[in-house]
């Protein structure tokens, strides 16, 4: 989908502007709300001087009619939602509007002054707050007589109602400024950025390898700014590329031929390196790295699809004495001869390799323990019957193990090595089978 840079720039600018406007508006609203709440609290506090003497006098004289008139007058104020008057023992004398009991329960005073449960408050801006004033009568002798307490109740809704008009003006002001700036920026950005970029995009879209450099691009925009400089550079680049096309065509053909030759050489070299990396240079068999790779693959195959897998591990008997008596070159020739016997005697599906030093391994896929044991015995007899240059006859000891259910590669090799060790301990030139896994 094609992206319009001018529209994207406009979205970014006004996205930032909207966030800033939103934050500033919220700060203004919060400040106005706090100021209005403080002013409301001050007005409620001033009622102590305005209505306090009258309420105190009515309580001192037990004049319920005057008390009711004063309480009704207090309740009539826009900032008051309820008034409650109590005597010095805390007994309710008069209540009007919405008040709280001592436990914070919200109550509503009926026409007869009786209190009943008020509707549950809303979740937002419906919390009540109150201010209590002590009613203390001072007689002619200056003696103070506590006669009760009266409480004025207000609500956050009162604050919201007084803030609402100011908030409405702030909101309308922000919306008008945002819309006006949107249209101004929309026109300016599209005129100064969108149209020149569209001209450049149309010109570049018509270029191809055949016509590059044939036409000179002229930006249809007044003034001299960065886009005109970019246009000049674009024309210079197109001319330079035109001159390079012919040279590049000849170079491309030459490089294509060189690449074909190089790919052939690389493929041949890669095959040779792969062979060297997986082959023991002395015997021509698989090396330890390749054997580990084949073992891992075969164990994974058996675990996934089933079937058998056996391993034959063999060691040339008394090979150190051969090296000590005849020299290492003679020992190397013995290793190569044993490798040739193993290669010719193993089956086509088997993998034969040098495990390390004078040890060899034969990996037998799709083979159980008895089949691998028979193959090991045949190889043992062939080696024992062979005549090796300089050293005469040599023998090998064999250890055979088959992969058990859910057995790991390391466990399989360890059991084959243990069987080889037993063959060595039992006199050498023998085949020992590890049957532990078969019994599990």
What does this structure look like?
There is one protein chain. Helix 6 (319-326) packs across helix 7 (328-345). Helix content is 57%, strand content 17%. It is an alpha+beta fold and 440 residues long. It is elongated, with a radius of gyration of 51 Å. The two termini are 64 Å apart. The strands form 2 sheets. A 6-stranded antiparallel sheet has the order 4-3-2-1-6-5. The protein has a 5-stranded mixed sheet with strand order 8-9-7-10-11, with helices on both faces. It contains 10 helices and 11 strands. The protein folds into 3 domains: 5-165, Beta-Lactamase, CATH 3.30.450; 212-277, no CATH class; 288-439, Alpha-Beta Plaits (2-Layer Sandwich), CATH 3.30.70.270. Strand 1 and strand 2 (92-100) form a beta hairpin.
Indicate the topology:
Blueprint: H1 5-61, H2 64-75, E1 82-86, E2 92-100, E3 106-109, E4 115-117, E5 128-138, E6 144-155, H3 156-205, H4 226-277, H5 288-305, E7 309-316, H6 319-326, H7 328-345, E8 351-356, E9 359-365, H8 369-385, E10 396-402, H9 409-425, E11 431-434, H10 436-439
Parallel strand pairs: 10-11
Antiparallel strand pairs: 1-2, 1-6, 2-3, 3-4, 5-6, 7-9, 7-10, 8-9
Helix pairs in contact: 1-2, 1-3, 6-7, 7-8
């Amino acid at each position: 989908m094609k992206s319009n840079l001018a529209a994207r720039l406009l979205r970014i600018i006004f996205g930032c502007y909207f966030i800033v406007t939103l934050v500033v508006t919220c700060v203004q609203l919060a400040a106005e709300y706090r100021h209005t709440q403080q002013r409301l609290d001050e007005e409620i506090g001033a009622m102590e001087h305005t209505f306090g003497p009258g309420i105190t006098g009515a309580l001192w004289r037990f004049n319920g009619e005057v008390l009711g008139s004063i309480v009704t007058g207090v309740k009539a104020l826009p900032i008051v939602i309820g008034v409650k008057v109590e005597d010095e023992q805390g007994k309710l004398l008069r209540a009007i509007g919405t008040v709280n009991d001592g436990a914070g329960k919200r109550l509503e005073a009926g026409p007869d002054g009786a209190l009943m449960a008020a509707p549950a408050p809303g979740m937002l801006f419906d919390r009540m707050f109150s201010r209590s004033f002590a009613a203390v009568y001072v007689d002619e002798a200056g003696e103070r007589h506590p006669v009760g307490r009266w409480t004025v109740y207000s609500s956050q809704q009162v604050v919201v109602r007084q803030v609402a008009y100011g908030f409405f003006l702030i909101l309308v002001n922000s919306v008008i400024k945002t819309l006006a700036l949107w249209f101004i920026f929309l026109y300016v950005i599209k005129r100064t950025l969108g149209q020149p970029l569209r001209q450049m995009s149309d010109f570049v879209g018509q270029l191809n390898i055949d016509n590059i450099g044939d036409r000179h691009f002229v930006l249809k925009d007044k003034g001299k700014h960065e886009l005109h400089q970019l246009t000049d550079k674009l024309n210079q680049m197109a001319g330079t590329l035109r001159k390079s096309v012919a040279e590049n065509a000849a170079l491309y053909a030459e490089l294509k031929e060189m690449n074909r030759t190089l790919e052939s050489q690389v493929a041949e070299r890669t095959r040779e390196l792969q062979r060297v990396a997986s082959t023991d240079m002395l015997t021509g068999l698989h090396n330890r790295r390749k054997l580990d790779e084949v073992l891992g693959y075969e164990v994974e195959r058996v675990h996934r699809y089933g079937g058998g897998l056996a391993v034959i591990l063999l060691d040339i008997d008394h090979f150190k004495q051969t090296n000590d008596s005849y020299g290492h070159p003679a020992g190397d020739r013995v290793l190569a001869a044993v490798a040739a016997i193993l290669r010719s005697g193993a089956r086509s599906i088997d993998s034969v390799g040098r495990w390390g030093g004078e040890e060899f391994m034969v990996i037998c896929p799709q083979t159980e323990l008895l089949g691998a044991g028979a193959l090991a015995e045949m190889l043992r007899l062939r080696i024992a019957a062979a005549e090796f240059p300089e050293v005469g006859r040599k023998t090998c000891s064999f250890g055979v193990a088959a992969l058990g259910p859910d057995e790991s590669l390391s466990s399989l090799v360890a059991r084959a090595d243990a069987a080889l060790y037993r063959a060595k301990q039992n006199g050498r030139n023998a085949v020992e089978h590890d049957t532990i896994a078969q019994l599990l």
